[in-house]
Design a protein that fits this description.
single chain; 189 residues; three-stranded mixed beta sheet; rod-shaped
Length: 189
C-alpha cells in the first residue's frame, strides 16, 4: 500500500509540519500582518520608530493623576490657588510690601534694622523711621542700595521711592486750641 509508514499524501495542506517544504507565502504573510498590527498599535500609542518604550511605574505620592488639570472642579495645588487669588484681587503689591516689612532685618541687615524700621507704605513710597538724625542721614546716603535690595525681594516696581524720617520730637501743644507763637522754651516776656 504505502510502505512501512503508511500511505503518503502530498499537497500543500496535507502535512501541517511542512515536511513537503514550506509554503513561501504562509509564514511571511502572517509575520507581515503581525508587524502591521504592532506598528498600528504603536502609532495609536504615540510611539515613533526609533523611540524607546516608556516604562510604566507604580504611582507614588508625587505621581500626576488624570484629575490634576487646570480649570474645572479638579483639585489644584494650594500655591497655585493663592497665586491666582492674589492676581485676581490685586493684592500682589500689598503682600509683597507686607513681606518686606516682616522680613526687614533679613533684607537690610541686622545693624541697619537695629536703628531703622519701616513705618508705612503708600503709592510706592516706603517710609522708614530712623532712631537718630545721624542714622537718618546715613540711610539717605544708602537709599539706592536699599532700593536695589527691596527690588530683589519685593519685585520690580513695588517700592519706587524711600522716604527716610528721623526721630519724632514730642509735641508741646496741649489742649484742643493753640496759638501760634514762640516755642516752648521762650523765656522772654
Amino acid at each position: 500500500m504505502g510502505g512501512a509508514d503508511g500511505p503518503r499524501i502530498s499537497g500543500p495542506s496535507a502535512d501541517p509540519a511542512g515536511q513537503d517544504g514550506p509554503d513561501p507565502a504562509g509564514p511571511d504573510l502572517a509575520a507581515a500582518a503581525a508587524l502591521a498590527r504592532a506598528r498600528a498599535a504603536a502609532r495609536d500609542a504615540g510611539l515613533r520608530p526609533g523611540s524607546r518604550p516608556v516604562r510604566r511605574r507604580r504611582r507614588g505620592p508625587d505621581a500626576t493623576y488624570s484629575g490634576q488639570r487646570a480649570g474645572g472642579r479638579d483639585p489644584q495645588l494650594l500655591g497655585e490657588q493663592l497665586e491666582s487669588l492674589l492676581v485676581d484681587r490685586g493684592w500682589r503689591v500689598d503682600v509683597s510690601v507686607g513681606s518686606v516689612m516682616g522680613r526687614w532685618p533679613a533684607i537690610v541687615g541686622p545693624e541697619v534694622a537695629a536703628h531703622a524700621a519701616p513705618v508705612s507704605f503708600e503709592d510706592g513710597v516706603l517710609v522708614v523711621r530712623a532712631d537718630s538724625t545721624a542714622w537718618a542721614t546715613q540711610l539717605r546716603y544708602m537709599s539706592s542700595t536699599l532700593l536695589g535690595s527691596l527690588e530683589k525681594e519685593a519685585g520690580p516696581g513695588v517700592v519706587v521711592a524711600l522716604r527716610i524720617v528721623g526721630p519724632s520730637a514730642p509735641s508741646w501743644s496741649r489742649g484742643p486750641r493753640r496759638a501760634s507763637g514762640p516755642g516752648p522754651r521762650d523765656t522772654y516776656g
